[in-house]
Amino acid sequence: LWQQISKALQWHFETIQKAIACYNIQAAALNLLHPNILWKDIAEYGFLAKFNLLRHSCVDIRSDDWAKPAHQEAMTKYFKLLQAHEENCLTQH
User: Which distant-in-sequence residues (6+ apart) come within 8 Å of 76 by Cβ?
Assistant: First the structure.
């Protein structure tokens, strides 16, 4: 999963840079005590539990079942199984 996140971050680098800059400007304008977000920090995130920005949101999703690594792994395997089933059905017809 972390490889997929890493590839997605690289693919959307420019958009993420703009979003980071916008967040930092808006946070400063609101006088929030949140630290600025830097690209190097974002690039190191592998799991939602490490994504500190989510701690400051209105709803802390880090404790939700789908955000737990074991459940993420189960979801990944489930979707791979669905994809394999779909590919199998396509090759049989």
Answer: 1
pLDDT in tens, 39-76: 777 766 655 545 555 566 666 676 788 778 888 889 88
Phi, psi of 78 (to 5 degrees): -60, -45
Beta strands in 13-71 (DSSP E): none
Count CA atoms within 13 Å of residue 24 on its CB side: 11
Q: What is the pLDDT of residue 58?
A: 64
Tell me which long-range contacts 16-25 makes (C-beta under 8 A, separation of at least 24): 16/42, 23/53
Q: Would you say residue 18 has pLDDT above 60?
A: yes
* Interior/surface letters 40-63, b for 16+ CB within 10 angstroms, e for the rest: eebeebeebeebeeeeeeeeeebe
Distance, in Å, from the CA atom of 12 to the CA atom of 41, rounded to the nearest integer, reads 15
